[in-house]
Predict the structure of 7,8-dihydroneopterin aldolase.
Amino acid sequence: MDKIILKNMQFYGFHGLFPEENKLGQRFQVDVELFTDLKKAGQTDDMNESIHYGHVYECIREIVEGEVKRLIEAVAEVIASELFIRFPQLQSCTVKVIKPGAPIPGNLDSVAVEIYRERKK
């Protein structure tokens, strides 16, 4: 299966378990892989035969910068669900939500969750 990849999208959101996270907010990074058949788009050079990645970016931005979730797992799940709603040609997707400023005592770059979802038939 072909795929469209958007990597290291950066947003500012207020997701987290702690009140400080919900009040102050922090950066989040998102990577997605969108699995779809790109053959017809490649042959016809027609955007209608593909998934417009500018629209994908805006969809993800609305979610990450929108309604507060306690878990980045929930953020990833909402992203995947909304992508299937907005892009009917999407067959499956991988969504990775990265939280660089996780409030964990210790030395680490980030925490992340990655989910893979397929369109329900």
